[in-house]
Amino acid sequence: MYRNLGGITIMVLELKVPHGDSVEALLPLFPVFLSYVLSFVYVGIYWNNHHHLMHVVSRITGGALWGNLHFLFWLSLIPFVTGWMGENHFSAVPVACYGFVLFMCSVAYLMLVRCLEANNDALKDAVGSDRKGKISMLLYLIGVAASCGWPMLGFAVYVLVAIIWFLPDRRIESRYKS
């Protein structure tokens, strides 16, 4: 049975229209656009996985509702750190903060899954050890650390994690029929 735990909505990030009609007028916006694209992909990944997660769930507790709210809190910070990172052309502190928010999104999602697993055996069986999730969390921490000295390396690590998760989680998807 599918139940919505508050839903994940795609957050609008501000892309300013350039003052000019040439390709050169777009160039200063490239860092903002690049960070926007990555964040859009991340929100889409979380939305898809959250959607699949809810299809397996048959029972939702108060703890799961709070877990979902915790997850949504960290997701709601993505537009802020995205804009900060893009506007500052991928400088160290904003890139590290972006990675920290992504790390906390993954922690909160894991906590939500654990809350739901406690009352949903099908989900527990589908998720298993969640090696992919744990590897992603480690990569986020590596990205945050790398961002302190080499911000573009940190950003590349965040892109790598997005690539890993681009397709919906098949472990969960295989447990329900659309």
Based on the model shown, name its key terms.
mainly alpha, 0% strand, disordered N terminus
The number of helices is 9
Which range does the strand content fall in? under 5%
Instruction: Supply Rg.
Output: 17 Å
Structurally, the number of domains stands at: 1
The assigned structural class equals mainly alpha
| Cα shape | elongated
Largest sheet: none
Number of strands: 0
Q: Roughly what percent helix?
A: over 70%
**Average pLDDT, to the nearest integer?**
86
The poorly predicted ranges are: 1-11
Distance between the termini: 11 Å
Helix-strand sequence? HHHHHHHHH
Protein name: DUF1211 domain-containing protein
Keywords: Ion channel, Ion transport, Membrane, Potassium, Potassium channel, Potassium transport, Transmembrane, Transmembrane helix, Transport
Subcellular location: Membrane
Main location: membrane
